[in-house]
Structure prediction request, 403 residues.
Amino acid sequence: MKTLDGIRLTARREVVERTRDRSFLISTVVTLLILGAVIVIPKLFGSDSNTFDVGLVGSASQRLGPALTAQAAAADVKIRLPSPADEATAQAEVRSGKLDAVIVDGRQVVVKAQANDRLSLIVQSASRTARAQEGLAAHGLSQSEIIAALAPAPLPVHSLEPTDENSATKKSIATIAVFLLYGQIVGYCMGVASGVVEEKATRVVEVLLATVRPVQLLAGKVIGIGLVGLLQLLLIGSVGLVLAVALGTITLPAGALGTIGIVLLWFVLGYAFYASMFAVAGAVVSRQEELQNSTTPLTLVLVASFFVAITSAFGSSTTPLAAVCTYLPPTAPLIVPLRIAAGDIAPWQVGITLAIMLTSTVLVVLLASRVYAGAILRTGARVKLLDAWRSANGAGSAARQPA
Prediction:
């Protein structure tokens, strides 16, 4: 059988079996439900931190209305200004949570417990502005002169380097995607390892190797399971993105789809890099109980890589650690999408790390296929990597003999 035919046959088998598996369907539905809850529940029951209701009691408070509206617009928040009948009614509405605050006769602000910092800043600024306007008007200044005195033109800002106004939003999208990316890589790489052990323990692999060579079996298994993981990632990401945009939780900036495409590319690279090594970790043991010990070193590397990525996501992605990890194949799949989204990496750096990742992935796949071939048919005690490497030629020759 030709190499590509064997790989395609094995990959098709993995896709069909795993998409029909109940655990795949359950995990997809549960993940979608959790993601939907995270997006929908705060929208339904949470308060909008960008909208405030401030009651105005008395004519002096009413005169603050225009200043409050102007200050709120400058702070990029919405403010509603109802007019309660009297102070007692206003205080009752504050206690019930209907109002965030009440301004009484322009002389005091009433809140339930502790004033919101943003709201307090808006109210105090509006009050100072209104009182300054009244003082300047009392000294005979015209309205245009008052506006010129209180609201001079801002200083122009000149950037020495081009900036992306949407970089923060794209980095947020990339951060969420990297969480999903990490979960998919861990979950499906473990799926590769457990699948290898299961076939080895049930001796199904002996039947398969009568038809395909070890390298075809390994490549087909990695590709097939990876396609299932990519399908699930696309499904979960698409549903979550559509739901978030529909509810107004996020607004897709220009280039957001490019950010998502970058994450998917690095999922493919990261999965291929790790899955081959997880397959070897499964091939050197004969029971599922031994799998955790053999995969622990790889899992620890993945956790460390995720820690570096999250540190960069919630801090700075320009630190020396982030810069170094950009070029390391174990950490690059999780750190590079964040740095690209934030605009903290030059195109030539992306080219270098992509070349390193591709080269490393090819080498890992080739080395892993040899060790896999030498260990997959050996049962009993855990196989040492060196012994598997040495016996690979014999295993490959035996696998190519007709059944």
Notes: Confidence is low (pLDDT under 50) at residues 395-403. Residues 167-201 form the longest helix (35 residues).
